[in-house]
Write a structure and sequence with these properties.
Layout (H helix, E strand, L loop, with lengths): L8 H17 L3 E7 L4 E6 L4 E5 L11 H4 L3 E3 L4 E4 L4 E4 H10 L1 H13 L3 H12 L30 H18 L1
Antiparallel strand pairs: 1-2, 2-3, 4-5, 5-6
Helix pairs in contact: 3-4
């Protein structure tokens, strides 16, 4: 079996410094509690924000009693929360990503926002429809240029084979339109 290598003092200091930098950017909990009336875990973050996570969203806590849930602890420098009974813990970064920053959360916000109706939304939709509806998106809209501007066609053939030729075609089309 190979002998494990030890970190040099320089490598150790660099790793420690990276860890400290991550701590300044990561969400950290200063207090955690269980709100029995609303059946949720409440976290207060170092930036003053409050986060409430319904217990039903944390499957590992479903069998825990309210008395057990009240014994939530903040671990380390506020990077995790845990309970001794049941033996469950969550890192704060994962909780924030799962409930407030991940694709699923963003999709849910979009779904909920899109499903809401109001007179203001309906009026906006009618006005947009009267103007011809949502404008078609353009794959590569070219900026408007004054007629006297000099033009240079740049080919990006190394990056994307069609891109350079597409720009050349657009250049020719505009040139013909001007006349």
């Amino acid at each position: 079996m190979p002998k494990p290598s030890l970190l040099s003092k320089t490598d150790y200091e660099a790793a420690r410094k990276r860890g400290e930098e991550r701590l300044t950017r990561a969400p950290r909990v200063v207090s955690a509690s269980y709100d029995a009336a609303n059946d949720r875990i409440e976290l207060e973050l170092q930036n003053g924000a409050g986060v409430a996570i319904p217990r039903r969203e944390l499957g590992e806590l479903q069998a825990a009693t309210p008395a057990q849930l009240k014994r939530v602890r903040v671990l380390g420098p506020g990077t995790a929360i845990a309970w001794d009974v049941p033996d469950v813990g969550f890192t704060v970064g994962v909780l924030m990503e799962q409930f407030y920053g991940g694709k699923a959360w963003s999709a849910e916000l979009g779904r909920r926002g899109g499903s809401k109706t109001s007179e203001r939304k309906a009026a906006s939709s009618r006005a947009n429809g009267a103007l011809g509806g949502r404008p078609k998106s353009q794959a590569d809209p070219a900026p408007a240029e004054p007629a006297h501007a000099s033009r240079t066609t740049v080919s990006f053939e190394d990056e994307a084979p069609d891109r350079g030729r597409g720009h050349a075609r657009e250049h020719e089309r505009r040139k013909n339109m001007e006349g």
